[in-house]
Design a protein that fits this description.
The chain is mainly α and 148 residues long. It has one domain (7-142): Hemerythrin-like (Four Helix Bundle (Hemerythrin (Met), subunit A)). It has helices at 7-15, 31-46, 54-82, 87-109, 115-142. Helix 2 runs antiparallel to helix 3 and helix 2 runs antiparallel to helix 5 (115-142). The longest helix has 29 residues, at 54-82. The termini are far apart.
């Protein structure tokens, strides 16, 4: 599910994070709650345009990536405790995401306003793919698994 492609969907998600679809919900403790918070911030990100005030744009971009960092730290604690077979791959995906989005924020700060569209589309696609594939696989691993 690409959030930014459907303005109605992302506006509804921002108003009611409980609309997190079954295809993206992983049903583990409060990870879905954190995913919902991310979708709210992505809904704000979907509205980013080159015409917005730079300070507002930068704040939205930074807030979103800060929330991703917090989420990844929480998720990675669970991953390490569970001895998940794909720990390295999963953590590297998180790291690459933060590196790429941070580089886009730096480019924006240097005056590249065109990076907004790339940032918005990348975040939208990455979270949709990661949640529905990688986090889903992790959820299946966790089902019935006792954390150490």
């Amino acid at each position: 599910m690409m959030i930014c492609n459907d303005i109605t969907a992302h506006e509804q998600m921002a108003q009611s994070p409980s609309l997190l679809t079954d295809s993206l919900a992983i049903e583990y403790n409060n990870i879905d709650h954190v995913h919902s918070e991310l979708f709210i911030l992505i809904a704000q990100c979907c509205g980013l345009t080159e015409e917005m005030p730079p300070d507002t744009t930068l704040e939205i971009m930074r807030d979103l990536i800060d929330q991703f960092r917090r989420h990844f730290a929480q998720e990675e604690q669970i991953i390490y405790r569970s001895k998940y077979k794909r720990t390295s791959d999963h953590v590297v995906q998180h790291w690459k995401f933060i590196q790429r989005t941070s580089a886009m924020i730096q480019a924006y700060q240097r005056g590249n306003r065109g990076v907004i569209t790339e940032f918005r589309d990348y975040v939208d696609e990455w979270l949709s793919d990661h949640s529905s594939v990688d986090d889903r696989e992790f959820d299946e691993f966790l089902q019935g698994h006792v954390l150490s």
